[in-house]
Predict the structure.
Amino acid sequence: MKVLQRFYLAEVLSGLGLTAAHFFRNLGRHIAHALGRVDARGAVTIQYPEERRPYAPRLRSLHRLVRREDGSPRCVACMMCETVCPARCIYIVADEHPNPEIEKVPARFDIDLGKCVFCGYCVEACPEDAIRMDTGILEFSSYSRDGMIYTKEVLLALEPAGPGGRPTSPVPISADRRP
Amino acid sequence: MPNLTINGHAVEVPPGTNLIEAARKIGVEIPHYCYHPGLSIAGQCRLCMVDIEKTPRPTIACNTPAVDGMVVLTETDRVKETRKSIMEFHLINHPLDCPVCDQAGECWLQIYYMQHGLYDPRMRDEKVHKPKAVPLGPHVMLDAERCILCSRCVRFCDEVTRTGELGIFDRGDHSEIGLFPGTELANKYSGNVVDICPVGALTDRDFRFAVRVWYLERATSICPGCARGCNIEVHVNRRRPHHNEGRRVARLKPRFNADVNRWWICDAGRYGFAFVDDKTRLLAPSRREDGAVSDATWEEAIGAVAGALRRFAPDEIGVVASPKMANEDLWALRRVLEQRGIRRVAFRVPPREPGDEDTVLIRGDKNPNSRGAELLGLDGDGAAILAAARARVVKCLWVFGHDLLQCAWDAAETDAALRAVPLLIFTGTNANATSERAHWVLPAATWVEREGTYTNFEGRVQRFRAAVEPLGQALPEWDILGRVLQALGVEVSAPRAERWFRELAGAVPVFAGLTYQSIGDGGAKLP
């Protein structure tokens, strides 16, 4: 290293210069835009959550369980997702389905979102296309660990996202977050 | 002895051996569905095709006895092509409902498709539909769609149990396995048809949807259900406690032993493990004083028992050992008895109703280790001990496992005896009416939670291994007795079952020379 580089002073000043250059350039562009120069566009901050960027169609968001026509889960409790899940956040308990053609149905299907890593393997592994991650819901939080466990009933009530990846079903709010 | 060549390897087999067994001898597996070494040969599945030199076309290996000079090839292109076609044929009407099928993971259709099939399905027509989820009896569920008509179950019911409930009905691709009218698959060995079914057609109703098979861990063991000592495998689910309602032992499967049970076990043994994860399990040592039960530590319990053995004269102490205890436990008990000079000991408690018996496997004596207890010299008059307790001669009674109020002895008299003794100690796995009357209860580990050996009625010493951890604070009986012995002032070395067995083999002449290694997985017959 050269002696000059060892002081870092030159590098610090050049970094500050770069930041300042961007700041003044954007300032100028925004002023120009405000004065009627429509083609001048400065850097934009999206005012989340009031403003949102459109989500990519393949975005992995909150899981949902796909329903049959009668509203029962399409899931047959084969445990493929539970087996493949690297975070071990899926808990399924199987039960007998009254229709022997379907035969098996989950009595319980819990996802512990506190553990989920959103890898999407459960969707890949599902042989029945019964679980999807296309709700567009990204905001779920809780004050407790139990509140992060989403049950079969909650997951079944969710709908796929609408245009631009906007959620079409209400965000499930855990009991401890309700007012 | 015919000498033949299989895939270039020379092999000598006894006359009459078929090619599947001959190939198995040199480690070559010929895929098959219908052939089972314990049943007659049907030649139904046509999968075990092999090429034999000088024969015009592939031949089934199961029904071809090995002949001197035969040259067999199991991996020629023609054989591989034949296997592939036969796999495709078997799967034409198969519903491919592996996600809901309990056999998935141990299904020979899955295994052989991956090994020998891997074709692109050409079946475009609607598959033939057949009844699904039909209970055939108390233990077996039939899914006729999944069946490949290998007829193993039919042959089992005809040849092994000789009850003949099952048959193949209808013709062509409408053929299906079914019950003869007015019958039910309720023989004492019905669970075995689930084991021999290579596909998911016959599944276990007890195990239905309980745990997926790939979550199970296995341990070799011995069935404790009767004096036969059938070799079994214990399948436990330790990693997913939310499955099977938290019960750890998921199922028992037979393990081949040519000298004991061959490939089979009875239903009573197969489904007789519910007590292991039952609510009545004893989880911690407890004491009962003035009717109030409170938990105690092992130190307190061992101290109390050792103190009692010291306090009472040897003639005032009676011990009712159990023929469900392993050899190691019984030997540790004998050491305790010898240490204190206790002579009043028995292990036989007659059941209310004599146990059922047959000529296949089931023995009337429903205890796994009566022979071991006899050989260790613990046979005495149990009724006399209770009579002495009633007469207030015996002042301390130590009962292992038995519910003395549920046996052939008069319940009122037994109750009087249990109430008369000033100190009643109970050691066992589950609570019962006797343990409720006990002043000290020491929880014991069940046989799947510990190691040990049983001696079956023929004098075969067989080893069982631990499959799961003991529930709560339960300990194996040998450990409890070893701690008591230590409290009585005898030095006891490292607490392991094997150590007790080594000591037993060194001290009891009939067991001389036996070690856990020499017993192995097949057991060792006593002279």
